[in-house]
Each structure stands twice: as C-alpha cells, then as structure tokens.
User: Fold this.
Amino acid sequence: MLTCKEQVARSSDYLDGQLTFRERLLVRHHLMFCPNCRRFIRQMRLLQATLKIMPQAPVKDADALAERLAAERRQIIKGG
Ligand SMILES: [Zn+2]
Assistant:
C-alpha cells in the first residue's frame, strides 16, 4: 500500500487521469483506507473544478484555497 506521502505525490496526476492502470489502483486502494487523503483529493478536485468553471475567479480566493490545500498536504505528509 502507498504511504500518504506517495499518495499525495500522485494526486494531481490521478485527478488529471495521467496515472497508469496499476498506479490508479494503488491510489484508489489507499483512498479506500485513508480518510485524510480522501479529503485531500476531494479538495484538490474542488479546486480544479473551481478554476475550470471560473478562470476569471478572484485570485484572492484561489490563493486562499491553494494555501489551505498546501497546509493540508503538509499535515498529511507529517502524519504519514
Ligand atoms: Zn493517506
């Protein structure tokens, strides 16, 4: 099973559909057992969706969200 750190390192590729079939399985498996990474992926997805829907979104909001994600990511890596 992936560590949280390995999982986080793959998350943007996962969301972009860039992983191999095998890696995607590994990520899904990790997400099944790790609520922290599940939450992280959900927030990443939200951020991506937000940026896609609102390319003109106020930079301030996107920054705040990205900052929160970065903090979350640090926490996950520390915990894992
Ligand atoms: Zn995890």
